[in-house]
Amino acid sequence: MMTEEKMTEYTYTPAQEKALERGKSICVTAGAGTGKTFLLTQKYLSLLESGVLPRDIVALTYTDKAAAEMQTKISRELKKQAETRSELRESWETFSQGTISTFHGFCLSILKEFAYEAGVDPGFSVMDELDKTELVERTITDVLEHPPEELFDTVVRIFAYTSPGDIKQIIRSLASADAEWFSVLQNDPESIRLAWISAYREYMGRNNVDTSHPFFALLETADEAEYLLYLKDWFFTDPVNCGLIERLNAADSRLRNAWRGKYLYFVQDLFAAQTPQEIYSVCVHSPDLTVKSKKDFPVFSNEPETVSSFLQIFKSLSFLPGKESRVFTLTRSLLLDFYRTAKYCAEKIAGEKRRAGVLDFDDLIELTDRLLSDEHPEILQTVSQRCRYVLVDEVQDNDPKLIRLVKKLCGDPKESDRLFIVGDAKQSIYLFRNADVAGFMGLQAEFPEKPVALDTSFRSTPEIICFVNELFSGVFQNQNKPWDPPYDAIHASRKDACGSVSCIQLPYDGDKSAQKIHEAEALASWIYDAVALQKRSVYQADGTLRPARFSDVAILIERRTRLPDLRPALEKYGIPYEEASGKDFYAKQETADLRNVLSAVLYPEEDVSLYGALRSPYFSVSDAELESAAHKESGTLSYRLNKYAKANPESRIAAALQDLRRWREYARHLSPSAALQRILQESEIFSLYSSVSGGTLMEGNLIKLQDILRSRSSAKPFSLQEFVALLDVSMEGDLQEGDGEPADDSGDRVKIMTVHSSKGLEYPIVCCAYAGYFRASPATPLVFHEKLGYGLSVRPYDGDSVNILRTLIKNETEDKEGAERKRLFYVAATRARDHLVLCGSEETKAGYSEKSFMKMYQDAKSGLSQNPFVYSGALCDPDVSISPASYTAGDAVSHPIPAEDDEPAVISRDAEYAMQRGTLLHSVFAGESSHADFADMYADFLSCPLMENVVFERCEMPVVCGGERRVIDRFVRYADGTYAVIDYKTGSIASAKSSGRFAEYENQVRTYMELMQEIVGSAVSGWLYFADENPDARIIRIQ
């Protein structure tokens, strides 16, 4: 592909030429890296060249960033062309009249123009997600805590039959539920029950139960009591089953072991059951067993199948939607209760928004959809004529409502040339947002011709393209469901480039916790080997090679819960890293810490917040000191700590409470923004964050919290108390909010992000971490199916909760989730330009987790023509290789392909024991673990002169010294305002001096002193603490 400045000289591939043909609507499927943004830009310019003006074109994208990128590229090229081509000057002069925006932006402009017809205030504004979350949570909480008279009994029933933690989530989900379906549930529940019975029969059929028996027909008309009695009679009259029971009764009782005894006991219990309720109870608790033939008791061929069918039917009674059954009746009643409550809340929220003159993003889509309908045919015609051509990007990710809106504007794609859409079903990874990949695949059939598949990748090297083609041809081979996309092979444009695919495979070793650490260290060693040891090179924009840098590397994880295992491994190898912004801003620890501090300032008697604040980095009071201060007294935590502080005025707790009292005065007398600014300044939290891994993002999040408070308090009276309440609402409402911008996003650092966050991005080196594990997301209490409606978890009897619909659609749900897992793996693997690494551990003796990336790789790798480089552990040890400090980004590299024969360093048994002992000591001294051998040492350390009058401390503090990651054992601040660095060691001073290590220790502490002096702006003393030495000799000051 040529550069942007020479776009008009670009030589299209055959697929691109076909996609840019005029005179018909076209659907394009664009695999990863095949240049869909470029194609959309070219389509837009092609329309302008044909005489179409910008005001006649609407280009819709999924994100603001994508819209801005497209607008910039088109305007730049159009301006250049207009300088030499007079026929394009009008297009350039009127370019601002065109629409290149997100769907929400487009809907906003329509509603602004037709506000009166849409029934909204012409001056309406769009509320952000924080405002919406605050309004929704406040409204739901108010209705649940103070229900109106007409909802009082409804709310009581909801709390009686639902887990309190699920209630708000269900109400939020039903706020925009299908009113027509609930009307049917209210007025004609039998029609819904019969639809569920039909689904039940299909479910049992898929589980090899013969559903042609009259029992299944009886379920449509008989009530629960009738079909339960019929089921018992069927069981005891079935000839195959009766024959088996008769032979079991006749067998020697000594031979009734294993399944035979269990089955006979069950038969006896069912025979004794007389009432429908007794029959139900016995059946749903039927044993799990398999009928097997034994030498002493052979079984006939049809007996196992018969018993299995009966047992499956018995188990299914718990979710069988029988007529007048307890489970269906309770499900219906509770669904209607929740819907009434959700509808009341929604009406109340809508009223609040009307009074405030605001809409949310969902309103924009809903109101525009309603406006452009048969209710307003003249408006639909006006807007449709204006949108002469519609270009849509990332179709696979858009909500079905948006696709319906596009079809309203353009009509039937087979009848016009107005619609041009680009998408890739293989990159649809937003099932949790209702993105409908099946809808996109169905939409393709509405075009006059088959989709044009872009078949050339401009991103990845031939090695990666070959690997992806061969692997995913196997992964995507089953295409028998509407949500299973086909895989079309693509070609590599970068034919002369040379890359690699590596696979780090760790066998199961029995200790899952340790294995996660080993896996992270193996990946860190690969990165260290590739960059610091210069084993990998990457390509620049001009096609020339250069050594890989840490900033070339992206580590992809599925969940951010993997970060605690990954960070220490990277730090061990001295690898600088940053964590990409996620959507869990309100779930971040720094947000929770600030919330606890502010709550402790405003509400000192609130124990939980005070405890959290004292343990946070703002005060770093240890659990041991809190326990010492509070466990012998009664009363509130505040009372006990204040009593302790009076008796121990030099303690960290006393200093913390003094800070809180002073900050409380700020909250009373200063503006909220000014008070927060003073609190953050005096706590020195920014200095602390600046010295730890990921600290720049933490700083950015604190700045974002300040901005939120400043924005709120400048628009209207807004107190710190309201700010804390806002944070509580946002945390409880699980608001998906992006992180703040890192305080410093420059530097040569590895990027860590989720696979979802990586979509649309690319990196020279991509490492898929923890690819051998998979954990399904927890089940939600409310489920929805486009044909069967809504289902809810209920507990009709004592025992586990039951969700009829979730069980009936279980197979379909698992199929959809499994298909999305394949697509997620594809997205992860196709982010790499030059080098791809898969890293995973076997979770059990049986191998990798089902549905994990590594399991998919293992199942499909037989189709690979060339296997990747395979590693079974760490490639190198940072202690015996060159230091990262000697690595310089940009140095020459001579071996872009990894050395396969590097031997790991051999560590002596004594050295290994010493290292393990040192690790244990650091862990105990940091308060992270306890160990009998070090308990007295830790007590001695806490009582030594170095720890007297400490008011702030930070243990195991990661820092960067000369480009190398290190960890300061302890950084403390004393009551007099001075600071100190403490480095503790095992072994004797004499041994350290004789081996030459003592000089290294001294230099290390001096480096820490200089670094921390720059950070805190005042002198920092340095100390070595030899834990094994005599008390009078163990402390040495470093000058």
Structure description:
This protein is of the alpha/beta class and 1039 residues long. It has a seven-stranded parallel beta sheet. Strand 23 and strand 24 form a beta hairpin. Helix 19 packs parallel to helix 21 and helix 26 packs across helix 30 (652-669). The longest helix has 31 residues, at 326-356. It is globular, with a radius of gyration of 33 Å. Residues 1-7 and 880-909 have low confidence and may be disordered.
Features:
7-stranded parallel beta sheet; 42 helices; alpha/beta; 1039 residues; 49% helix
Distance between the termini: 60 Å
The shape, in one word, is: globular
Q: Report the sheet with the most strands, covering strand number, pairing sense and barrel closure.
A: 7 strands, parallel
* Helical segment count: 42
Describe the protein's topology.
Layout (H helix, E strand, L loop, with lengths): L13 H6 L6 E5 L5 H14 L7 E5 L2 H19 L6 H5 L5 E4 H11 L1 H4 L6 E2 L2 H17 L6 H10 L2 H11 L4 H9 L1 H18 L7 H5 L5 H14 L1 H12 L7 H15 L3 H9 L18 H14 L9 H31 L1 E2 L1 H11 L5 H10 L2 E4 L7 H11 L8 E5 L13 H8 L7 E3 L1 E2 L4 H14 L15 E2 L7 E7 L5 H20 L5 E3 L5 E3 L5 E5 L5 H10 L4 E3 L9 H14 L4 H9 L7 H8 L6 H11 L4 H18 L2 H12 L1 H6 L4 H21 L4 H13 L17 E5 H4 L4 E6 L13 E4 L3 E4 L11 H5 L1 H20 L2 E10 L11 H8 L8 E3 L37 H17 L6 H11 L7 E12 L2 E11 L4 E7 L3 H7 L1 H20 L3 E7 L8 E4 L1
